Amino acid sequence: MDTAVPTPSAWRKALTHSLPVAMGYYPAGIAFGVLMAAAGLPLWLCLAASLIVYSGAAQYAAIPLLASGAGVVTLTLNTFIINLRHVFYGIPLLNVVPEKRWQRLYAFFALTDESFSVMTTLPEQERKPLFVKIVFLNQCYWWTASLIGFLLGAGLNRLIPNLDFALACLFVILWYEQFRGKRVFWPSVAALLAFFFAKSVTTDYVLLLAVTVCALFIVAEARLPEQWRIHHARSAWALPTAVLALAVMVLLWTSTPAANMNTAEMLGTQQPPWQQIMAIVCMGAVTFLLRFAPNLIPKRYFDSPYLTALNFALPLSVMTILIAASVDVDGALAGSLHLLSAQIAALAAVWLVYRLWRNVLAGMVVGVAVINIMLSLLN
Question: Is the pTM for the entire model greater than 0.70?
Answer without folding.
Answer: yes
